[in-house]
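Writing this down once: the sequence line spells out the residues, with the fold written below as integer tokens. This is how one looks:
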Amino acid sequence: MRGLVVKSTGLWYHILVEEQVVVARLRGKFKLEDKKITNPIAVGDWVKIEANPQTEDEWIITEIEERQNYIIRQSPRKKGHTHLLASNVDQGVLIVTLKMPRTSVGFIDRFLVTLEAFRIPGVIIFNKKDLYKEKEMSLYEELKAQYESIGYTVFLTSFIENISSVEGVFEQKVSLIAGHSGSGKSTLVNQLVPTANQEVQEVSSFANKGVHTTTFAELFQIDDSSSVIDSPGIKELGLAEVEPEELSHYFPEMRKYLGQCKFHNCQHYEEPGCAVKNAVGEEITERRFESYLGILFQDDNRA
């Protein structure tokens, strides 16, 4: 039978098959092209399953269908390995908070690079506007102008007040919802899908950090044509499958200058005659260029 993976708990997978959810595990000898990956199956995968003849009410996953796309990051727990966040998604929706907790610009840009690398559209939702004072609103306006100018859709809202302004974002799409713990992902899911019953906890005012309430990624259906994948809170986002020489390709505002640099393999750092560096302060903001260098240095171990 064919089914959709709607929840992964590590060893066991919840598979939606014709409006019924069954529990299955991966066949023991299954290999994934020798890739170093912590989870060979992700929420959003379509799989083939068969009944386990040795155990009642247990199913075995025999095949993973080819993915339309996937979102992956470096595993935070196993060095040298990667971790699939989700597969077969129509868009990635990043929940950003400028207070309680604060999402860094570097984190936003890493998430957007991850989406760009796999040609997945991105949406940025700034949550908790009810907490924003003049300082946060000023920063929001700067970031909104920056990201909209390079093609991203940006919203400002407060999930505890009203989500009507962002409900349309999720219509007729499979959306991965990502962000730091405490950013409001589970609150949003509970409002979009009242039967989800995702646990929600307050952010610590002392540490200004959220508590992990979502332990495993899980897909919830809003209606027949719309669904959301709630992911565990991401503290750090290590890029995977992105080479240093390709990084600038995933900054939309830099793409128009690629091929115009003096050197064909220019990484836009110390090289002379760099068209990208010459555009910084004009069509490329200083903030985004700093993010680019931060990712370049950290991920290729030069600094």
User: Anything to note?
Assistant: Residues 244-299 form a domain with the Ribonucleotide Reductase Protein R1; domain 1 fold (CATH 1.10.40.50). The chain is about 20% helix and 25% strand. The first strand starts at residue 2 and ends at 8. The chain has three domains: 2-66, 71-230, 244-299.
